[in-house]
Design goal:
single chain, alpha+beta, Transferase(Phosphotransferase), domain 1, 2 domains, seven-stranded antiparallel β-sheet, three-stranded antiparallel β-sheet, 9 helices, 12 strands
Amino acid sequence: MPNKSFTDPEWTTALEQAGYSDFDTWWDAEGEQVEVGNFRGKDDNTSWSHVCRIHLDNGKTIYLKRQQNHYPTNLILKLRKVPTFELEWRNYQRLQEAGIPTMKIVYFASRKKNGNHQCIVVSESLVDMSDIDQLARWYAQHGWPPRAQRLAILDSILKVIKKMHQAGMIHNALYGRHLYLNIPFVDGAPVEVPEKIHTTLIDLERTKYPGPRSRKMIDHDLRTMFKYIPEWPARDCLWFLKKYLGIDKLTPEAKAIILDLVPRRKKKRPFVKPDSPA
């Protein structure tokens, strides 16, 4: 039996009908691999982690993440032998309590078997959503929406980040591919920007709790976001930073932050056909 286990009540029946009733059925499940697995150690069985996609008969899609003896690179957490997926589960609960929108975890379990620490996270696919990384690449190549719509997109992202930071948390891996918006791609192009835009966070295993006044809010989260979404127009980024800092005019401190962030932006990248989030 798992040492720790959770099943979302809304998903219990659907998962049982699909044949996923316990740890072993999930551990042995077959699915479509969506990314190259992460293997560490002297052989492939020492430490590994990978993700696959499963399409259920009810029309919904889920992402199954499995790992064995896979711990953070952080020395303290590594010594404590806390699996990265267990960290993601803890962070997910804390973000949910703070009212911060994230992907939905429908099943989590962790167990020790034959001396190995095994962990599972199953999440619901984000339907009709795309990550800001792919959107920015496409817009840069094919044409940007009007500025009012661009600012509406940034404002949606800003509200989620600001709420998370005010709760004393940082995502700590705020790459564009981890920020999803309700702007899906249809026939290879994003749909018209909707009037109401929603932002959702994924990949929560690195989330930290430095406190609401920590400099890491900017140094870690905003720096990562600006660095890895270089296509976004500079004046829009300036608008974002001013609104994040709650200022109308640039102060010496704000100028220093902007000068520190802008040079770190990389060159534009080619558009790559988007895939669903894991």
